[in-house]
Amino acid sequence: SERPSPAEQGAAPLRIVGGRMRGRKLLYSGDPRTRPMKERVREAVFNLVGPGVADTVAFDLFAGTGAMGIEALSRGAHHATFVERHFPTAHLIEKTVADLELQERTNVAAGDVFHWTKTLPPGGDRRWVVFICPPYRLYTEMHEEMLALVGRVLDRAPAESIVVAEADDSFDFSTLPDAARWDVRKYAPAVVGLWRKRPADPAS
After folding, report:
1. pLDDT (tens digit per residue) in 160-196
2. Distances in Å between the alpha carbon of 188 and those of 30, 39, 41, 65, 184?
3. pTM score above 0.70
4. Within 13 A of 171's CA, how many CA atoms are on the CB side?
5. Quick one: which of 26, 69, 117, 154 could link to 60 by a disulfide (CB 3.0–4.6 Å)?
6. Measured between alpha carbons, how far is residue 161 from residues 18, 76, 125, 154 in Å?
7. How far apart are CA 190 and CA 27, in angstroms?
8. Phi, psi of 177 (to 5 degrees)
């Protein structure tokens, strides 16, 4: 049977935890496939990222509620792109973006993240902050595809970009590309890895 729409479910609000829009609401349908990152984990992640988010181009891959990209905008990111394959969920991100009057600083792409990243061109002069927060099962069910996706992002990101990957403790972060340079932290049940591209790294 068809799932009820977010409007029919009664979209439950989450909140932005930092930056100029702190306390503003993010819409959440309650759909379990979305699994928004817990607010305490989101706050911890942005504490790790620090002021490096300012003036970046943010990419929220497997965006779900769009919380990570919107949080980045709240904290000074220049622009955010949200990629989400579930069309009703992508539509809810668009509604949240409209409610927050962020349309001119955002792009919502309703499509498959694996395909989308294959067409992602190498970045220009503006640094990226990339959030890769898929359903945890994809690290097992699509292991090689996930590693390839992360590799594409690392390769194409401009120097001094930041990449954040979220999984759970069933995933071995040592299998990631450039494994030694990931700063891995546990926020049970989530495990978060953060990678920074060196200034001298080639942005191919």
Report:
1. 999 999 999 999 999 999 999 999 999 988 999 999 9
2. 21, 13, 9, 20, 12
3. yes
4. 31
5. 69
6. 21, 15, 10, 9
7. 22
8. -55, 140
